[in-house]
Amino acid sequence: MRCFGFIVVGLVAVLGGLPFSSNAKLEPCFYKKTCPQVHFIVFKVVEKVSRTDPRMPASLVRLFFHDCFVQGCDASILLNNTATIVSEQQALPNNNSIRGLDVVNQIKTELEKACPGVVSCADILTLAAEVSSVLAHGPYLKFPLGRRDSLTANRTLANQNLPAPFFNLTQLKAAFAVQGLDTTDLVALSGAHSFGRVRCLFILDRLYNFSGTGRPDPTLDTTYLKQLRQICPQGGPPNNLVNFDPTTPDTLDKNYYSNLQVKKGLLQSDQELFSTPGADTISIVNKFSSGQIAFFKSFSASMIKMGNIGVLTGKKGEIRKQCNFVNKKSAELDIGSVASESEEGLVSSI
Ligand code: HEM
Hints:
Largest sheet: 2 strands, antiparallel
Radius of gyration: 20 Å
Protein name: Peroxidase
InterPro entries: Haem_peroxidase (IPR002016), Haem_peroxidase_sf (IPR010255), Peroxidase_pln (IPR000823), Peroxidases_heam-ligand_BS (IPR019793), Secretory_peroxidase (IPR033905)
Structural class: mainly alpha
Low-confidence stretches: 5-22, 333-350
Mean pLDDT: 90
Number of strands: 2
CATH topology of the largest domain: Peroxidase, domain 1
Shape: globular
Strand content: under 5%
Organism: Glycine max
Bound molecules: protoporphyrin IX containing FE
Number of domains: 2
Enzyme class: oxidoreductase
C-alpha cells in the first residue's frame, strides 16, 4: 500500500522491496512527513500536460532512463551548460531528442511552493516516470525514494553509456551490464518502446540501405516496410515522427513483444532481441508477448533496479533549488537572471 493517501487507479503489479546497493537508504515513504502531497502534485502536473501532449508520459520515462544510465539517477541530465557544467543535454543521444525538461521544472515549481527545499530533482524524474507508467495504462511502479541531486554532469559518459539504435545484441547486453542490468532487464526495459515516437533518421538505413547493402533490413516485415517508407521517404525530412507501436501508440503494453515476433520492431536494437539467431532473448520476448502480467512484473522490477543505479543518499549531493543548476550557481546569480537563464537554457518539449 502506498504510504500517502494517493490511490492509483489501475494498479496492476505491486512489487515488494528489491535489493539495492547497501549504502543506499531509499524508501517508498521517504517524504511521508516532509512532503506528503508529493505524489499527488507530480501526478497533477503530468496528467494535465498529457491531456494536450499524449506523448509526454513516454518522453518522461525515457528522460529517467537517460538520467540513470549516466553516473546514476542523480538528475545530472537536467543541468544546463554553465562555466563549470558541460550539459548532458547536448550529448548525441539527447540532443534535439529528449523531451519533458520543462515539465520537470513545472513539477519542481509546484513542489517548492508546497514543501520548499525538500524533494530532489532526481526523485522528481523518478516520480514522473512512475506517474507516466500509470497514465499510459502500464504497471504501478512503487519506487523507493530519497535520491539526492548531483553537483556534476558528464557529457562524455552520456555519449559513452547510452545505447545506440544500431547496436547488435552483444553491444546492447554490454551497455546494460555496465549498469548492473542483466538480459531480462534489457528485454523488459526495452518494452518501454511500446509507446512514444522515433524520428525517421534512426530508421532510414533499415528502410533503404541496411549496413551498406543498398537493400532494406531483411528482419523488417515487408508490409510494415512500405508503411514506414511513406512516413520516412528517402531524402525526406529526418525529423518526421513514427509511432513505436502502430496499434496502441500511447499505451505501455506487451504489444512491443508481439510486434517483434512479426518483424515489426522499429529500431534495429528492438528487432535484435527476437531476430538474432539462437539468442537467449527470444524466449523472454515470447514470454512477455504471451502475458501482460509477466511483462508488467518484470518491467516494474527492472525499472526499480534501474532507479537504484548510482543514487546519492544521506549527505551526498544536494537538493537543488532549481533543477537546471547546482545550488552554488543559483546563489551566485541574482534571482532575475536565474529565471531568464533557466528559461533560455531549457531544451523545451517539441
Ligand atoms: C535498449 C537500448 C535502447 C536504445 C538503443 C534506445 C534508443 C531510442 C531511440 C533512438 C529513440 C528515439 C529518439 C528520437 O527519435 O529522438 C528512443 C525513444 C524512446 N525510448 Fe529508447 N532506447 C533504448 C532503451 C530504452 C529504455 C531502457 C527505455 C526506458 C525504460 C526507453 C524508453 C524510450 C521511450 C519511451 C522512447 C520514446 C520517447 C518519446 O516519444 O519522446 N528506451 N529510444
